[in-house]
Structures are given as structure tokens and as C-alpha cells.
Protein: G-protein coupled receptors family 1 profile domain-containing protein
Organism: Neogobius melanostomus
Amino acid sequence: MTCVLGLAGNSLSSGSHWPFGLLLCKLTYFMFNFNMYSSVFLLVLISVDRFVMVMFPVWSRNHRSPWKFLLPLFENFLGTIVQHRTYNTEFR
């Protein structure tokens, strides 16, 4: 993400001129939005996980495993891609 912010900052400081080409422009835009949406979805997942642990401690302890952690992460990834594609098609 640090590289993406540097490229975006360079573009803003040069008066919205993008000297790096179309491929890097699209990749930077995708990475910036992907990071933004995945961060939001990850915070929601963490909040739901903590809520379940506080409200249902015994059930949570009995039903947690490392493999069950991967499914929400995969859903987070897919949700981020879908959200990015929806945003791209609606507002361009």
C-alpha cells in the first residue's frame, strides 16, 4: 500500500499528470480501492468475532478452529473484489 500512496501523491503533486502509463494507473487504482474495501470488511469481521466471543463464550470456545477462520477471510476477499467491480461499473 505504501507504493500506491507514493504514486498517487506523485500524481497529485504534478498537477494530476500521470507519467507511468495506463497499466500502472489501473493497477494503482485497483490496489488503492482493494485495500480500502478489504480494510473495512476485515474490521467488520473482527467486530463480529469479538461480539460472538463476548455474547456466547462457551459456544465460541467449542466451535472455533483455525480452518473455520479461513472461510470468512476468503469471503472477505471475494466481497472486496465484488464491491470493487460494482463500484467500477456504476460510477465510470
